[in-house]
Specification:
The structure is a homotetramer of 308-residue chains. By secondary structure, chain A is of the alpha/beta class. The first copy, chain A, folds into 2 domains: 116 residues, 2,3-Dihydroxybiphenyl 1,2-Dioxygenase, domain 1 (Roll), CATH 3.10.180; 143 residues, Roll (2,3-Dihydroxybiphenyl 1,2-Dioxygenase, domain 1). Chain A is built from 5 helices and 17 strands. Chain A has a 9-stranded mixed sheet with strand order 14-15-16-13-9-12-11-10-17. In chain A, strands 2-3-4-1-5-8-7-6 form an 8-stranded mixed sheet, with helices on one face. Chain A is globular. Chains in contact: A-B, A-C, A-D, B-C, B-D, C-D. The interface between A and C is medium-sized, with 15 and 15 residues.
């Protein structure tokens, strides 16, 4: 395949403070499809259009945040190969048995230098998007909630994002798409990386605490759906952090908002294609505001401080 | 890289009957950026957002059609590797020297079983999209013409599309995304293939004549730009073949229309992501109408008959 | 008021061949809100956003078509005044008692020179749009079906459209917005008239049979909702006559389609503002195709022939 | 006519601190069409789609703000009639001779109780929108700048908005569409009024200083053009006050931004139809934030304080 190795973001396990309230909110406001619960009581969701069994897992906990973020790889041979590369890179890996997550094969878990748990896996049950694989109709937006197309990427915060980037580039074959420099002009404040031709599959910001989540992002297909999403948020009194607006970085349109536990989520739309032969884009410290919020051209208070 | 091998469609050389008229039309109606002419008199164009030097080459000729369609590959090692695979597959390849196309490296050319000339190349000058690589602004649509985002794919017509598919899958690592079956339920009338995570990078329809072009497609980012494109076509008395409408296949929105020489072009927007782990979609003969034109649910006269 | 006299299209009574099938279709595919039935068995509907009790009445009959089309006027004084003007113009009027249509006051009914029954009325119960009149939320599109904003206008076919126009202009104070001329350059093939600042509140085409309905139109707010409407039609195997496309006349975007009884309906979006000080627009016979279908620039077979 | 009396907002004269800089900005960033200058040096503009000679007049001055706001009325009889009604209401009127504003007939000027100068006029030269009145093409957006459809309304600040409302309702036949109440639950903080079927043609906020302008608003047809407008503002380093977002009041989408002299302008899109038979909407003090900015649900610092 010309698409090989790590294919795409596959799942995020998010900690919530009140599971039932969160299940209702992810179902009715986010418009995700509930896909059952496991013996640990975790609640599973997918978007309507995703074909794999789930992309979001909610776990009740006493603090918000993200337990782990998983990427689907091409096949089991790829999984084994990437695990060997991780070990050769000095990374300690762990195998989580098949079935620990519902309908999901064995996972290879490891920690990033920033402390975040990342997983790779090759198998998750194809449950389809409800349209079938023969003469499918278009899945018209007729249901409740925001109903994003897919779980798209995450932005994580932690100290050593340089070591993170090295691991993603050298071991997992990601490509650098954009970066923001600190005032010194050399240190990266933040980097955006892709394993495909999207503007980003994961991003990271330098931050003194390890293992922090800034947001998990869901894709919307159109700017009009971004407006509809903001309307749904307001109507449901969901707290909006910022937006609707456009990012200068990736040029996608965005709303940042909070789930009932205070986890920041994003609806993301657009963003240019980035192929590995393309030059990365650099933002200087004085223009970081325009990079994050293209219209306002300055950061809001929460962007660099509120994480879970 | 997780994106390796063949990256994307890179250029199409199109034959036109009146070069100056066509240059004016591709500039003012299509809204492409003229990128100069070579010693053979061929005229080069790129979209505003493309970063490589060109994606469309016009050559004056006494009949319309497409001379060749080129794909960019990751690097020269990939180019050499894919040439070896082609030869091992029994395909005769030819090297076109660097510089034959402006600002373009050496190309490997070969003919598909359907008779079409395909090229692979690793190098084309990065001239940028005018926004630069440091603190870029958004490139607002303020100019003349349709101004698509990128040259996106082509649809070719020819006899042995099974052998074509085998070559694209086995040698060039493309993936089957969708297919239409003939009345017998087994033979493919048409196939859609991708080398990335797009719904298609090339497609082909079974047809008795070899080396025919159905259309070269340009991407638009929004359905509103599709409407604007149709308005521009009407205002300029460009002949519209069909649309605006939606394809059932790929679920993208579309307009088919003709350049002044009768070459069919398309504006294409949307289309779902397809990764190589995903199940292909099959259309049966009785639903081919809905597959091609989702709203009308039947083919128009020209779809299977008018090619150049 | 600066808006006085006839305010807007208020209701259309449509004949359907199978009432229950039609009630299901107008509810689930059109996305109208069922508003009850009367003692005659007629079924009432409104759009979600309309505040008055109903805008569509379905009556079971053995042939399709429109029984009457009603306009709401400012108040009862206006109703009496306009009836006097009608009588002075030589028009025979009839009073339909309050309550004949559910939640509707007394109606003044008369026949146009083209044979169509038109009604004026001043009172219909304000049932609201579900958002209330204090701190209303936005009514997000989360339900089933096309869900238009309002019943917008109708296009009628009949012989003496000149006399129609005279009545609408002189008695009901409508304004001519656009017209299409026949080949002779003087006779009107069709006229578009407004009683407000919309591009049209009623339109009429010259036709040999009296009392024919071409379509009743429903407004959509965006071109993206036009696409969604076409998708819903295809998914429900609703027969689409033409579109999505744009009209040259009014410049609105459109889909023509048929209800289960063969009545043509339209989704209409956009259209410019027209105030009574503005110059009307004229289309010549050779450009009528572009006037009706701006992108195709020619009429389809059904436009001048299929009416109910 | 069913549309009579005051038809629509017709022009606003805005004071700018540097005329040449402002002419360049209103031309290139706003995308208005320059329509010449008069002997006083005032610069005239219209939108591409407006047919009357101009809607914006810029006057060089040493402080920003709005000199006057004009409404077009149906005809000279209406102008005379409304002047009599004004005088009968105790308002002192003044006649400005024809030609004082380029291509404009005689104007009746008077001051509102809030101190603002308002004008009525019946005649302004129809220069057309460039598409002609026979077989017009669609005016595709191909030029520079935001290119709004029309000058839409203004929001003024001053002390006695109750007396303003009485004058607009009783003398000029405007209709109340929405209102915001102060904490006492009875006093209006703000009112939105229409002379047509739009959600507002003028609005006013209670404020201790007389004769203040909050913003002059320009209409855009689509939410995608709102995004394009915000992109153009950012690219040109135009200061954005708030948005893109949606108003709860009128439900239109909006960007507030400043011209080079600090005059706040708005791009406004959408907004529901309001006819004079419809119930006005009331916002309570505790929900004024959601009324102004539906997504953020709270006012920003500048909304009640920054005026010119």
């Amino acid at each position: 395949m010309a698409m090989t190795g790590v294919l795409r973001p596959g799942h995020a396990q998010i900690r919530v403070l009140d599971l039932e309230e969160s299940v209702a909110w992810y179902t009715n406001v986010m418009g995700l499809v509930p896909m059952g619960r496991d013996v640990q009581g975790r609640a599973y969701f997918k978007t309507r259009q995703e074909r794999d069994h789930h992309s979001i897992i909610l776990r009740q906990a006493d603090r918000a945040g993200m337990d782990f973020f998983g990427f689907k790889v091409l096949d089991n041979a790829t999984l084994n190969h990437l695990e060997k590369k991780l070990v050769a890179h000095g990374v300690r890996t762990e195998r989580i048995p098949a079935g620990d997550l519902l309908e999901t094969g064995e996972r290879v878990r490891f920690n990033l230098p920033t402390g975040h748990a990342i997983e790779l896996y090759a198998e998750k049950k194809d449950v389809g998007n409800g349209m079938g694989y023969v003469n499918p109709d278009v899945d018209v937006l007729e249901g409740k909630g925001i109903a994003p197309t897919r779980m798209d990427h995450c932005l994580i915060y932690g100290p050593d994002i340089d070591a993170n980037r090295e691991l993603f580039e050298k071991v997992l074959d990601f490509t650098l798409v954009e970066r923001v420099k600190l005032e010194d002009g050399t240190t990266d404040l933040a980097t955006w990386l892709t394993c495909s031709a999207k503007a980003h599959d994961i991003a990271m910001v330098r931050h003194n605490e390890p293992d922090k989540m800034h947001h998990v992002s869901f894709r919307l297909d159109t700017w009009e759906q971004v407006l509809r999403a903001a309307d749904i948020m307001s109507k449901n009194r969901t707290s909006i952090d910022f937006g609707p607006t456009r990012h200068g970085i990736t040029q996608g349109t965005t709303i940042y908002f909070f789930d009932p536990s205070g986890n920041r989520l994003e609806t993301f739309c657009g963003g240019y294609d980035h192929y590995p032969d393309m030059h990365p884009i650099t933002w200087t410290w004085d223009e970081v505001g325009a990079g994050i919020y293209y219209h306002a051209r300055k950061l809001n208070d929460t962007f660099l401080t509120v994480v879970t």
